[in-house]
User: Which sequence fits this backbone?
């Protein structure tokens, strides 16, 4: 079974694209564009829902499948963009949380 | 030092939002919308670049910072949406790669 | 034949939604979200194209149909959002061009 | 005073870009990407609002200015993309409404 960590998934995505010779399409610009398109497909699931309906979205098996599927697509393009730009996504996020903790101090 | 894995970052994001009482804003719908908005901010860095310039984006320290910062923002909202929907992002992506390997067989 | 101007199209869109009782879905927030989703579908047509291929996109009849179709969807949600917010889109754009002419003076 | 119709605004946008020699940036692909980015900036205004707050967004003068400003930006890129692809936006939308009237018949 494949290891379930970010680095292993990033490696699988990289091998997947290389085997299909998709590398020439995978410029950072194209990957950023594809990421935004997939984020749109994820948002589409929620666009006409009330806040309450959106909180309950996973109780519908068909919608739940779509949410998981689109979350995966967004993550796939995010990781491929990060590989192309040599960004370590975990470090980038940890650094951002650090900055946000200084920028938005918690209420007393 | 904080552990650098997805589950730990997801926990930090959850505590960060809880401490600021942002939970009521964090419906799946709002998080999906914020994710798309952040994906737009990431794409903005690349929108006027040629493919070649986009491949070289990280050689500019100011743009490199923005890329890391926006990648972090996209991941932050993706993880918060995943928490709200109880989606395991690593499993979702591994399953999606499995499906894609069947859907797009590699050339012989 | 229907008049082809913005106001008439805005009126047709309004009657279309009213006849289907879609008004309760058409909050400014939902319309802004749907607009972004449609902009993503328009961008999807171009995401893997080179700049040169994108300049030639209309020579492919199937892609040309999709471009016209998605341009129409983006405009439809933009006009419905503008109606909901009582924004006159033509005045808003004329004012913005005025501001941009002051902000970005043309080279000598 | 400038005429306020789509064709005149499209002409002003075209002259504006030509005077600044921005034409080489304005491939259909880049314009579609910029359109999506601006749609994201418009959506950002609404992302944390309740449906009720979003319906009342124009009562806040600062938010009302942003809505008009971002609506103008979205329309500007949509018209520039339409010019680049020789799409008549009014005809495209009228045709789309015709198709939708057949696809979604009104309830009896």
Assistant:
């Amino acid at each position: 079974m494949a290891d379930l960590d970010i680095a292993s998934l990033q490696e699988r995505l990289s091998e997947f694209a290389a085997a299909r010779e998709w590398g020439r399409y995978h410029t950072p610009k194209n990957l950023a564009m594809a990421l935004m398109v997939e984020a749109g497909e994820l948002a589409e699931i929620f666009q006409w829902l009330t806040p309450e309906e959106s909180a309950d979205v996973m109780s519908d098996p068909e919608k739940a499948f779509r949410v998981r599927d689109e979350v995966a697509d967004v993550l796939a393009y995010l990781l491929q963009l990060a590989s192309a730009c040599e960004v370590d996504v975990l470090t980038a996020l940890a650094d951002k949380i650090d900055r946000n903790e200084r920028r938005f101090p918690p209420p007393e």
